Amino acid sequence: xxxxxxxxxxxxxxxxxxxxxxxxxxxxxxxxxxxxxxxxxxxxxxxxxxxxxxxxxxxxxxxxxxxxxxxxxxxxxxxxxxxxxxxxxxxxxxxxxxxxxxxxxxxxxxxxxxxxxxxxxxxxxxxxxxxxxxxxxxxxxxxxxxxxxxxxxxxxxxxxxxxxxxxxxxxxxxxxxxxxxxxxxxxxxxxxxxxxxxxxxxxxxxxxxxxxxxxxxxxxxxxxxxxxxxxxxxxxxxxxxxxxxxxxxxxxxxxxxxxxxxxxxxxxxxxxxxxxxxxxxxxxxxxxxxxxxxxxxxxxxxxxxxxxxxxxxxxxxxxxxxxxxxxxxxxxxxxxxxxxxxxxxxxxxxxxxxxxxxxxxxxxxxxxxxxxxxxxxxxxxxxxxxxxxxxxxxxxxxxxxxxxxxxxxxxxxxxxxxxxxxxxxxxxxxxxxxxxxxxxxxxxxxxxxxxxxxxxxxxxxxxxxxxxxxxxxxxxxxxxxxxxxxxxxxxxxxxxxxxxxxxxxxxxxxxxxxxxxxxxxxxxxxxxxxxxxxxxxxxxxxxxxxxxxxxxxxxxxxxxxxxxxxxxxxxxxxxxxxxxxxxxxxxxxxxxxxxxxxxxxxxxxxxxxxxxxxxxxxxxxxxxxxxxxxxxxxxxxxxxxxxxxxxxxxxxxxxxxxx
Length: 659
What we know:
The chain is of the alpha/beta class. The protein is built from 21 helices and 24 strands. Strands 3-2-1-7-22 form a 5-stranded parallel beta sheet, with helices on one face. It is globular and about 75 Å long.
């Protein structure tokens, strides 16, 4: 049985079946239960499905605690909170409905302006059959390149994708030993090729598993003939007529050829040239030195004194692997690891908390400035802790004990891996925030005055972008300053597009890249029109100022950084696949899954061009969700903010577009 296959036993083992017990029955739909064996079903009980009401198929919203839960105060408190939260939500729902009705009436009579959102739905025109096919060049065959190929072909274009490596996968081919995604499989999978029952439970793909998924994607959409491996684009030059002359080197045959294309889509990613800082005396160091892009396994660091410089998710993972075998490990960062987010919480993947209900709250309400963490967020954290297991509690203690500058994910990029904390807690690694002043033959001197003797250095210091094959205007491209929605250049219009370069502070790149690819394909096929260059410049200025306010510590250094929720909502709004109140009213069955379920890409195939309502609903039904008491609390916040926005006293929730 796939759900209990050997390579997934670490996710759903015997001692973790409590994930599916007691008050967690709301996570398992009938489709999920069909996947579990009879033996496993016996382990699943529902604390609010009372036997004498089972025939009536009635489910109480207020869960009754079991005897086991009565022995633990936190689950008991979680149960007792549900009734007052339910009553509060009913009251807020009535208040919101009344104020919303009044506002709609005032808008109708012109007494109140309609709400303004960052983007408007664009008109998508039907396909044109009579025109000759446009030739499109895609640079890079990672996940972004593959979805661009698929979308362009579906919009009637002739596509060729070039990849300088010998196989697909981009930055994950090859990866490092034990490498796993920071986002779960359901959140990472494309909406047009979502996860199904065989992919349960939700978990984090290893790099090899993701490469298998991409290979299946290529086979499913039959796009293999459009991919050219071992082909490196060395020059792309736009002619006066707007066409592109693309020169490609065939690394297997060692020859070059030039082809003509109408459009070009760059999907080569940001991880081009490994960045290693210049340090005084670095030429004197006699030990081993490597960049994280060269790291494959911890074996070469067996018994050595290792210095790891920098962080990020890969740095955190590498630190943990090396700490298991090294004699000692010192981890240093200049400004801290950013917002540290564990991969799992309550025995489940953490990104089930990436919901419209939570991430859709306006950032002007969520962001903490000057007054510390607001009461509502302290309450949210406390309510979440009611469902903690022993592992969660232990990790919380470890995070508190490791001294690093702690930020919230709303203000900094997220390091979505807690493994460097585990390296310190479990294997004696040390962590400090400083930088290297000077290097010697066998030691490194730090800015804090300390010296660390080491045999090896691993640089997790990021990458420099290389667009040397493009015209001079793109050589020093800054995504935030130069590209509309980090995709189109106002000067070049639809002639060239960049897909996959928007890096969210939390979440995952592929869902954003897919929406970019869908819009890009429509734009290249002339089914949607780009804004005029002046309008694009104006939007770029607004987006830039917003991101500089949102990420004050990182906006200059990480040009591709963006807010996950806003970016998804902007693209979905432009495409017309967004979720608004009218669509929820017409389709009430999707409301709970859309509002409180994880923000998986399948949500963006429910409506709009290229929609697949049934397939999307299956994925939404299978996906896990947060505990019921958390849903209730977030619903209270949503209704309160929505009501205030009806009076014009707050920005409306981002995740649901209100009229």
